Amino acid sequence: MKRNILTLFFLVITLFHSCSKKEDSKFFEVKGRVFLEGELVEGAEVLLKNENDNYKTVTKNDGEFIFENLNPVPYTLEVSKDLNNEGLHVKKVYNTKGNNGTELESIFLPIPVDFADPIEVSNTFINLAWNASNSDDFKEYKIYRSGSSALDEDTGILRHVSTIRNDTTFIDDQNSPLGGLYPNTDYYYRIYVMNDKGKLGGSSIYKIKTKEFANNVNTAYKLKSVTNFAVEKTVTGIEFYGSHLWIMYENGKLVKYDFKTGTNLETFILDGDFKGLAYDGTYLWTNYRVPFEGTLFQVNPIDGKIVKSFGMDPSSDLAYLNGSLYMLWRNLNQINPINGGLINQFKKPFPEATWGITARNGEIWINSYARDSNKIAILDEEGNHFGIAYISEDEHDILSNGDRYTMCFMNNQIVLSYGSRLYIYDIEKIEL
């Protein structure tokens, strides 16, 4: 990754307000010189303005600028310099009093603030770092992000604001309410340094790419299609035990299903918007959803009656593993099935909504429905993303259009729902 390495520099302007030599005139002039690292700078832009006048010039090859025949009134002086072709620039603002005979002290342009190498990059987060501003009128840093190199305050998403001068790191991750990060994707960042009046400078536009996998991914599986078949209607949850599938349909129809013969063995009507199914060895679990709320139900699979319930966040799917329920929504929540209490909460490896979860042998498999959906992430019971499963590329089209689907393990196979169809896959371990 090519980086612009910038050294400390300063820009010094010495300004003189001098009376005109004409005895009958009150005009005066403003002049000075610009320095960069002790050297005279050519091409720095200099603006002098107030409500009535607006003057512009650039420094000559000797670093000098001059404004002549000025009315003796206050002006705002701005001196700025573009330091590369990637947007890095700095600026200093000074208010002149407009008094004849006033000599101004040197003005030091603040050092430019630019990105350093990132502290860490993974598949769903970037830990950014930059050098601190030394401006005496520093107010805050603003960091913007975009998917395009055409990045400024208008085109980018404001991702971070800090008013602490030495707060020079920021983790941009998947949990942003303004849109998280996707794996294997280019992102562009820019820092603006602000004072009370506006911008003191802007960094170079910094391009960085997220990784395809989490940094500790070391396990991979490939899913090979065995068969697929249609069922009654859209599936919102599936679970397997014994030799049968349990299927939750939209509107709360719960069915014990013999997939070998295609027949319903038991049917119960729970009536409502239920999402997800999990089996704990004795009872089924499902989540009833209303906007922004959910209720976790324990269901007796013998008679379809509700045994107990807990109010909690909504969920798109459920899994059971080693005495805990795992509920998938904005985060991955580990739930105590005895009292409905939250044991732990983990970040998902996908930034967008995820709709399928299942578990086996210390592995929690979850998938994304919105993007890159030929991959399923594998987490351990501590929420660490350590594995990945691939759906065969020639079948990726059946799962890549963003529809919602749930899943369950069935002995050594995995079952995925897609609309009103179920897809069964063999699981083969492969090398990364």
Describe the model:
With 432 residues, the protein is an all-beta fold. It folds into 3 domains: 12-108, Immunoglobulin-like; 120-209, Immunoglobulins (Immunoglobulin-like, Sandwich), CATH 2.60.40.10; 219-430, Methylamine Dehydrogenase, Chain H, CATH 2.130.10.10. Helices cover 0% and strands 52% of the residues. It contains no helices and 39 strands. It has strands spanning 12-13, 16-19, 28-33, 35-36, 39-40, 45-49, 54-58, 64-70, 75-82, 89-96, 107-108, 120-121, 125-129, 140-146, 157-162, 169-173, 186-195, 198-202, 206-209, 219-230, 235-241, 244-249, 253-258, 263-269, 274-279, 284-290, 293-299, 306-312, 317-321, 324-328, 332-335, 342-346, 354-360, 363-368, 375-379, 385-391, 407-410, 413-418, 421-430. The strands form 9 sheets. Strands 6, 7, 9, 10, 14, 15, 17, 18 and 19 form a 9-stranded antiparallel beta sheet that branches. Strand 4 and strand 5 form a beta hairpin. It starts with 11 loop residues before the first strand and ends with a strand.
